[in-house]
Amino acid sequence: MKPLLRALIVEDSENDTVLLLRNLERSDFEIAHQRVETAEALGDALDKESWDILFCDFTMPSFNGLRALEIVKERNIDLPFIFVSGTLGEDVAVQAMKEGAHDYVMKNNLARLVPAMERELREAKVRRLRREAEEDMRVSEYKYRHLFESLADAAFLIDKETGKIIDTNPQAEILLGRPRAGILGMKESQLFPPRREPSAVTELLSAEGGFESNVLQKNGEIVPVYVSVSRLQLYDRRFSLALFRDITGRKRSEEKIQEQANLLELAQDAIFARGLDEKIQYWNKGAEQLYERLELIGTLTTGIAHDLNNILQILITNLDLATSAPAFDEHLSKYLDDAIRGADRATNLAKRLLSFSKGGVPVKQSLDVAETLTPAVLLALSGSQLQPLFDLPPDLYPVFGDSVQLTQVIENIVVNACEATPQKGKLLVRAENIDEKIPPSFELPVGRYVKIEIEDHGVGIPDRIRERIFEFCFTTKPCGSGLGLATVKSIMQQHGGSVAMESIVGHGTTVSLLLPAAARRPGPTESPMPSPVVKTTGRILVIDDDEMILGVVDSMLNTLGYHCAVAKDGVEGCDMYLRAKADGTPFAAVLLDATIPNGLAGEEALKFLLQGDADARVILFSGYTESDLFKEAEHLGFRAVLPKPFSKSEFVAVFNKVLL
Length: 660
Hints:
660 residues, alpha/beta, Rossmann fold, 4 domains, 21 helices, 24 strands, 22% strand
């Protein structure tokens, strides 16, 4: 399909127009045309529509070709204009070309018409492209100049071949203390003090990136700057654009901070120096110590949340199995025993959280290694196919540590061993005394230690990740948290010990722990006390906002032979207590929760009860035994305290004490 060509024909003769169009049919265009024969019609056609070419007769009754040319020029239209005439003399033709006509064709030689038209269309296209390029260049130059002039930094455009500055902005005049005319033509090396070698300057300004340096002002002053360099290429020429930012203010701040640093390093408090941009510019040793503590708390707390989910799974699964099992199922006892063991682990977690409330500092005491290590390993292997093999000499030194935190260390290592050994296998657990000769990998001072090794025969750890296994949140497991070994490292550091690992891919991994030995052995373990016998009876009032706690305490009291009433709030409970006393059916004791959100509990509820009955026997129970309320309970008027969670034996012992 031929492209469309819109032709405007200025001609008074219909026959000449038909002849012209027949010749145009030989071209590669589909011709759409309009014929006009007056100046008014020509102007109207130019104003209403867009045309690709104009053919014009020179002599017409109402006006001539030169006037037609003027009408086109008045509208500033770059339209190919070709005269087609039978009377155009050579002198007139030359004059017409001077006035702006692009070509002329005699009517007796219309064979030239199509070639002349095609040539003028090509030249018109070239002119249009040149105009567009020039306009783009003007726009680009305007944008460049506007951007260049408005930059906040001093800007220098440097010719790569000559090393000369060919453009700059007002900020550069301020920075150097020179007028623009005095900067243009300078060598790039002249921007810097003489101490810099010219070759080094050229190398710095040739590479992209940034660096700190100094610039030399006209008056000889030295100004510190940060230089950012980028490469440009314009019109086949290579340039460097260097932006210089005055950092005098920042340098002064850094110097002032540095002047104070020696004094601040001596302070025991955590001290930070922060800039106006909210970034910390300086911190002292005290701040570092406060931070390694906060990091430890964060690491261990997240690890506890991970462990708690595992414990809850043990509890939920075993209780589900127990409740759905037949009455005489031989596995029922095991389900309940496993649930109790899970509850014991939850209790240890609660103790761990309480230690975090004190800053995560271990609560250390002398510990027997075998007594701490063996149950921790067996508990972590619950449900695993690995079989533990212990090699624990009887003469092992005791260690000085927090039993709860060290149990977590052992559990994390054993769980990793289980995951690395999906098939049945052995888990070797051994320990030995270390005197004086400390393995270099532990980086510990000379002393008496106990070395614990836990060895599996699993898949091993590849060399490429072995250096990162103790990093916080680093994991190779799709659903892992990356906290297990990070927690191990943090706890060992808090205990003055260390951890190391050796692994061979396909053969297994050995984790070694080194713990400082204690000065003396732990005292003898107290033999478990026999379960106390219920020695009292009576009505007990339980005040707690948790319905499940109310339910289990009610069941326990009823099982032990007590009668129970419950209240979810201290106001309701106090009212029940006073009504029962007035009716002659008083409560023998009150079990009162320490805190009830948006309700009356603890010390405030105790005051109401004692105002109504000075002999009220109130027992405080709560899950937060480290609170001031628990420590001052008996002084405030409570008869006893009962920490959550509590066993049946502990429950009975407290009520025997209060009610006898």
